[in-house]
Amino acid sequence: MVKYFCNNTDIKSAWDHVVAAFWQRYPNPFSTHVLTEDVVYREVTADNRLFSRRLLMKTNRLPRWAERFFPGGMSRSVYIIEDSIVDPVNRSLTTYTWNLNHTTLMSVEERCVFKDSVEQPATTQLKREAWISSSIYGFSKPIQEFGLARFKSNQVKAMKGLEYALSNLQGETPQRLLRDTVKDASEKAKEAAKTLASAAAVPQKPQQYV
């Protein structure tokens, strides 16, 4: 069973500006959990599309219940691969991201498509999809619920970070950081963590093999 997330957003900026901001969105005050970013490969394809692969290192504070699934000394950092394709002819930017480690506990795959809006001038349409899964026996469902809640929280922060980068590119200093929206999403993630903690406290019946 995999948890699926889909969201459509209109960004009130021209596609060219959004693409430029995409490459300059780190660091920003909303994504302090992103520690490093490195371009590991880049090429212009035969059909004049720009393909890039980046390696990002992120960290998220683990809830107490998750400690039981991590052996002592194991890194809490998460390594993320981000593939992106910029198509200047069709005016689209497509990104694919997935985590390289801790995949048994949780695997998160994301696809984002930024397209120039045909109907609305100076607007970019963003479609964001995510697939969240876990292979922990007896806890996969609550872990996926927690992962979905955390993903929703982080994607709100990601949008705020992109808006922050856009403001900087346009020479505007944001008057205030809209942390209220981020706080609301973070509270939902905490609620899911409490649910999972309760599930973890219930003894699981061992699996029997015939």
Question: Can you describe this structure?
Answer:
This protein is α+β, with helices and mostly antiparallel strands. It is built from 3 helices and 7 strands; from the N terminus they run βαββββββαα. Strands 1-7-6-5-4-3-2 form a 7-stranded antiparallel β-sheet. The radius of gyration is 19 Å and the shape is globular. The two termini are 24 Å apart.
The CATH superfamily appears as START domain
The radius of gyration is 19 Å
Helix content: 25-40%
Which fold name fills CATH's third level, the topology? Alpha-D-Glucose-1,6-Bisphosphate, Chain A, domain 4
- Which series of helices and strands comes N to C? EHEEEEEEHH
The count of strands amounts to: 7
Strand order of the largest sheet: 1-7-6-5-4-3-2
Q: What about the largest sheet?
A: 7 strands, antiparallel
How far do the termini sit from each other?
A: 24 Å
Q: What is the mean predicted local confidence, pLDDT?
A: 84
Architecture (CATH level 2) name:
2-Layer Sandwich
Low-confidence stretches: 175-182, 205-210
Could you say which structural class the secondary elements and strand pairing correspond to? alpha+beta
Broad shape: globular
Q: How many domains make up the coordinates?
A: 1
Strand content: 25-35%
In DSSP terms (H or I, runs of 4 or more residues), the helix count works out at: 3
CATH C-level name: Alpha Beta
Put the structure in a nutshell.
The chain has 210 residues and is of the alpha+beta class. 30% of the residues lie in helices and 33% in strands. The two termini are 24 Å apart.
